[in-house]
Design a protein that fits this description.
The complex is a heterodimer. Chain A is mainly beta. Chain A has no helices and eleven strands. In chain A, the strands form two sheets. In chain A, strands 2, 4, 5, 6, 9, 10 and 11 form a seven-stranded mixed β-sheet that branches. Chain A has a four-stranded antiparallel β-sheet with strand order 1-3-8-7, with no helix packed on it. The mean pLDDT of chain A is 92. Chain B is mainly beta. Classes of the chains: A mainly beta, B mainly beta.
């Protein structure tokens, strides 16, 4: 049973470019959340997708956008990259139970994005 | 607003020592969940425990134990007889009614042989 898989594992971009990160949730999961983890910090919530719609969003600018596909996989897009966007981007999946605090998140190993 | 504070940035111990990682949280929600995750160098966050706000019983799982005290808003994590493989960054996290997880900044634990 595959867990949460993310691609690519590492990525180097330059300022102003755009990037797309991909996530496949754990088998049986239908909800995907994205987190940004800067060096030496805890992960910060970016947004969550369920039923192909953004359900909740953290304090991130509109440059950060996402998408969820019918097979529950998800993409995170970041436009006009800034140096400060350099971070580990983590994807987490869960199964919607109708009660938010029952969610148990499973995390992928992340995509390390470096912006030069 | 919800907040998680892990005051210990780094801890270094010698193998077989006991070590406690501190976590203090703030929330106005009456129903919430507290978590501990382990992040090895590979980057993946590994789930260790989830505890709801109505269950203050301490929990033990092998060498791991957790002490939840609502009176002091703390959810501390103790590793007994630490091992080199326990070396990692450990995160405490809080999930209230807003669904998202709020993480602390993490404590880097190094267990030396």
């Amino acid at each position: 049973d595959a867990g949460v898989t993310q691609s690519p594992t590492h990525l180097i971009k330059t300022r102003g470019q755009q990037v797309t990160l991909r996530c496949s949730p754990k088998s049986g999961h239908d909800t995907v959340s994205w987190y940004q983890q800067a060096l030496g910090q805890g992960p910060q919530f970016i947004f969550q997708y369920y039923e192909e719609e953004e359900r909740q969003r953290g304090n991130f600018p509109d440059r950060f956008s996402g998408h969820q596909f019918p097979n529950y996989s998800s993409e995170l897009n970041v436009n006009a990259l800034l140096l400060g966007d350099s971070a580990l981007y983590l994807c987490a999946s869960s199964l919607e139970t109708g009660h938010a605090t029952n969610e148990k998140l499973f995390f992928g190993s992340g995509t390390q994005l470096s912006v030069l | 607003a919800q907040k998680v504070t892990q005051a210990q940035t780094e801890i270094s111990v010698v193998e077989k020592e006991d070590v406690t990682l501190d976590c203090v949280y703030e929330t106005r929600d009456t129903t919430y969940y507290l978590f501990w995750y382990k992040q090895p160098p590979s980057g993946e966050l590994v789930f260790l425990i989830r505890r709801n706000s109505f269950d203050e019983q301490n929990e033990i799982s092998g060498r791991y134990s957790w002490n939840f005290q609502k009176s002091t808003s703390s959810f501390n994590f103790t590793i007994t007889a630490s091992q080199v493989v326990d070396s990692a960054v450990y995160f405490c996290a809080l999930q209230g009614g807003s669904e998202k997880l709020v993480f602390g900044k993490g404590t880097k634990l190094t267990v030396n042989p």
